[in-house]
Amino acid sequence: MSENKFEMKNYKEPLTMGILNVTPDSFSDGGQFNSMETALAHAEEMINAGADIIDIGGESTRPGYTPVTVEDEIARVVPIIRAIKEQFDIPVSLDTYKSETAKAGLEAGCDIINDIWCLKWSGNAIPMADAVGNAGASVVISHNRENATYNDLINDIKCDLEESIALAQKVGVQDSDIIIDPGVGFAKDYEQNVAVLNNIESFVDIGYPVLLGVSRKSVIRIAIERDEVSRLMSAESFEKLGGSKDLDEITHAINEDAISRGVKIVRTHKVWTR
Fold it and tell me: How far apart are CA 264 and CA 9, in angstroms?
């Protein structure tokens, strides 16, 4: 059993996961933190602001992204994982859908695998669930699918997540190590993303901690363009926002609204001090 161990029960909820992209091409911060010096400085900045987890990504998953090789992804993330674990007392998450990268990251000391392909990416030589289960690590199962056609959006997403949960359980991943994410921005159009936000309680009801990752995503940008930001949150949260059109302020308002409805972790580029 690995020493990698993150358990929700050991932390006061809710938690903030700060995004650290060590990539040249991420959609909002590409190239800003892809050196050791800038990555560590930004990690420290987020920790000082109140981040509970640092989520490291070595490949952009924005629409139209260019995939990188496993070797390049490992080369980007492993030194950063090691450095953060050496310098800061904070759980580290690795944002990857590649099981070989996950294995390398776990060996380097990361605590959580954040998989945007819900343990189902077909290109893995070994199943992602096995990589996580063998390490005794925690996993964020984020909803995604190749066929973005739904008969009943919310129920279909729940069924997909439950299938992935079963994959994890089959190889010994403990229920206490499973976190689910409804996957805003993945295999969903604007209206479907709005529906996910409006039905977040349906995912809370599955019974696992829910992570929400909406930071700076297209659903917010489109809502701003259409003057429909009010659709992304409760009327009370929208009123508190005060008409702001700032991506980070809207992200924060959505996150706080989701937390009030049962979400346990919010993943964000800008960490807001509570």
Answer: 11
CA 137 to chain centre: 16
Query: Digits of tens for pLDDT over the chain (274 positions)?
Result: 345 578 888 888 899 999 999 887 444 444 455 588 889 999 999 999 999 999 999 997 766 667 789 999 999 999 999 999 999 999 999 999 999 999 999 999 999 999 999 999 999 989 999 999 999 999 999 999 999 999 999 999 999 999 999 999 999 999 999 999 999 999 999 999 999 999 999 999 999 999 999 999 999 999 999 999 999 999 999 999 999 999 999 999 999 999 999 999 999 999 998 6
User: E-strand spans in 74-152?
Assistant: 92-95, 112-115, 138-142
The CA distance from 134 to 177, in Å, is: 12
pTM over 0.90: yes
For residues 200 and 109, what is the distance between their CA atoms, to the nearest angstrom? 32
- What residues are labeled active site? 217, 267
